[in-house]
Amino acid sequence: MGSHQDSIRDDSPDHLPTPATAAGREGLDALLAAPGRAVIALDFDGTLAPIVADPDRARAHPDAVPALAALAPKVASVAVITGRPAEVAVHHGGFADVPGLDHLVVLGHYGAERWDAATGALTTPEPHPGVAAVRAELPRLLERSGAGQGTWIEEKGHAVAVHTRRAPDPQAAFDTLRAPLADLATRHGLIVEPGRMVLELRPPGMDKGAALREYVRELDAGAVLYAGDDLGDLPAFTAVDTLRTEGTPGLLVCSGSDEVPDLRKRADVVVDGPPGVVRLLRSLTTRLA
């Protein structure tokens, strides 16, 4: 896989990496052959935006929106699928009122929310009651756990996340909190989704795989590309695998992270983080010109 990661670093605008698997090559070929029926789906944090210690400061790579705006008119749709609230992703991504991005949607909260660039309309459901209950209990749980120093709570509307990246020993704090947070989530009808030094408590049935499958079927897409970087992207990878077996070719892209080896192993192409994702988007645009 390393050779594919190295190859994407070629700055030639029309350079595309060769997928490591036959299924990935079929997915890329299908995308290039009929781009008007292709969905380009991407995670936000770690894929379009560099990972930062404070998620409120996360912003899309400066070249990401221009790359998406150039590619979007050539494909059926560009979908940003994220655990963040849709409006937050739109703001941090700078996706609103961008010429060329009419074909972009943001599926926030793992698809529970949807923002359409063409209309600016946001649809969102009522929050699960367990989220409010968990939110109320979390500060005391963190204090009792002994992992409180440096950990902090991110409010996500339809979910709540506990970050440990700022703790003196982020991995130790993460490991300490997994069991008590799982117990708390279970008591209130939620699940825990682990990520890169973050544990998110959210309702069951919300994941990027379900969001991706539903959107691909809504558009009757003929091909799909999905790019992600974290454990929360594994369900989307599985969704692409399922779509492949059902006859929809797909390409799996890992926005390279040594913290999530499982994702790298399953990817058809590994790129060098958000800069590599931008280069891939540009290369696709050039090939589709």
Short recap of the structure:
With 289 residues, the chain is of the alpha/beta class. It has ten helices and twelve strands.
SS strand fraction = 15-25%
Shape: globular
What is the tally of beta strands? 12
**Alpha-carbon distance between the two ends:** 28 Å
Give structural notes.
The protein has 289 residues and is α/β, with parallel strands linked by helices. Helices cover 39% and strands 19% of the residues. It has ten helices and twelve strands. The chain has helices at 2-7, 22-33, 64-71, 86-93, 129-145, 170-187, 208-219, 234-245, 261-266, 273-287; strands at residues 38-42, 77-81, 104-108, 113-116, 122-123, 152-155, 160-163, 191-195, 198-202, 223-228, 250-255, 269-271. The protein has an eight-stranded mixed sheet, sandwiched between helices. A hairpin with a 5-residue loop joins strand 4 (113-116) and strand 5 (122-123). The longest helix has 18 residues, at 170-187. The protein is globular, with a radius of gyration of 19 Å. The two termini are 28 Å apart.
